Amino acid sequence: MIKEWATVVSWQNGEALLKCDVKTSCNGCASRSGCGTRVLNKLGPQTEHFLTVTSDKPLMAGQKVELGIAEKSLLTSAVIVYMLPLAGLFIFAGLFQWLFGTDIAAMSGALLGGIGGFLMARIFSHRFSQRDNWQPVILSVALGPDALRVETSTPPLNHP
Question: Which of 20, 3, 6 is nearest to 74 (CA)?
Answer without folding.
Answer: 3
